[in-house]
Amino acid sequence: MSYNKEFWDRYTNENEARYNEEFAKFTRDLAISLRCTSVLEIGCGTGIDLRLFPDTFQIHGIDLNDNALDIAKEELTIANFKNGNITDLPFEDSSIDFVFTHQLLNYLDEDTLEKGIAEMYRVARKYIMNCEKFEETEKQIDENHKFRNMYKRWQDYKVKIVSNVDMHEDIDPDKSRFTLLRKL
After folding, report:
1. From CA 122, how far away is CA 164, in angstroms rounded?
2. What is the phi/psi pair of residue 89, to 5°?
């Protein structure tokens, strides 16, 4: 996968403006209601989706952008933020209760996506949530990203699909597809 530093630095600078408290609350409340005690966001950026998690959680974030991680570490000192790649997650097998992505998978090429799904499955102990821009056939959005159909992507794994619906626009104005699965 090619990593466009300039693109992601620009994305980082705009990340704080994208902070969506409703999405952060939704993610926190869901993980708590599922009796999880550890969380990992892959592609965490500046950590905006993790900021409302209580300090009773083991909070982890992975991103490739050091600028974003520096901001995340300042904003959420109780969390463990690491530079890392979705294709090689620095965690033990079945070590994180709740693993999630929020509009990350839309940016990945096919090979990276396939390896990333395998890695999410490997490190997840209980649940995986993907909130990604959705279209059935995964057509191109623009030169940088594609729609994703995560329900279809998880069919070859030992999982139970708990939910696969569009997010309400009050929670996610982009109306990402909310796909939640239980690892079996």
Report:
1. 21
2. -75, 130
Per 3-state DSSP, the chain is made up of helix, strand and coil in percentages (nearest 5) of 30, 25, 40
Structure tokens, 15 = 């990340």
Please check the confidence at residue 1 and state whether its pLDDT lies above 60. Answer: no
Q: How far is CA 38 from CA 6, 28, 55, 76, 136, in A?
A: 32, 11, 10, 15, 31
Contacts of 33 (CB under 8 A, 6+ apart): none
If we measure between CA atoms, which residue out of 41, 29, 10 comes closest to residue 103? 41
Tell me the longest C-alpha to C-alpha distance in the chain.
Answer: 41
Domains of the chain: 5-183 (3.40.50.150)
Q: Is the pTM of this model over 0.85?
A: yes
Closest listed residue to residue 62, CA positions, set 47, 52, 77, 78: 47
